[in-house]
């Protein structure tokens, strides 16, 4: 792993590096050579180039909408609990959620279960 990659703390590559990847791509270099030269995974090079082709920029675009209160992983854990014990109350699910580090309201849990196709639970 390169020194530059070890120093980085965020999951996003610096815009300058993304621009360099696109510039090399435009000059005719393939994904493999691009990846080896800049010490970035091939899949990352491919996703940066795809994003550039789609949006015409390498800049981080603003995200739409409000972020979800429950993560995908937390939602799956709740569904697993309900499938294990269909009579579990929402208050107990809320406690389980809090133990996982994702505190949220009862209505949020109910909505998450509804989105997962689970209805008629004690709530």
From TrEMBL:
Transmembrane intervals: none
Molecular function, one GO term: DNA binding
Protein name as annotated: Transposase Tc1-like domain-containing protein
GO biological process terms on file: DNA integration; DNA transposition
InterPro entries, alphabetized: Homeodomain-like_sf (IPR009057), HTH_SB (IPR057667), Transposase_Tc1-like (IPR002492), WH-like_DNA-bd_sf (IPR036388)
Superkingdom of the source species: Eukaryota
Domain Transposase Tc1-like as annotated: residue spans: 75-123
Domain Sleeping Beauty transposase HTH: residue ranges: 8-59
């Amino acid at each position: 792993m390169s020194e530059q990659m070890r120093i980085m703390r965020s999951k996003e590559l610096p815009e300058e590096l993304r621009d360099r990847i696109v510039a090399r791509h435009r000059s005719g270099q393939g994904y493999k050579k691009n990846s080896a030269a800049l010490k970035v995974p091939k899949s990352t090079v491919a996703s940066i180039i795809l994003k550039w082709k789609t949006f015409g920029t390498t800049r981080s675009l603003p995200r739409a909408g409000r972020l979800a209160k429950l993560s995908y992983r937390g939602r799956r854990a709740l569904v697993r609990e309900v499938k294990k014990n269909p009579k579990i109350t929402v208050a107990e699910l809320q406690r389980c959620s809090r133990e996982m580090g994702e505190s949220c309201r009862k209505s949020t849990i109910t909505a998450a279960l509804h989105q997962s196709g689970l209805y008629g639970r004690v709530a």
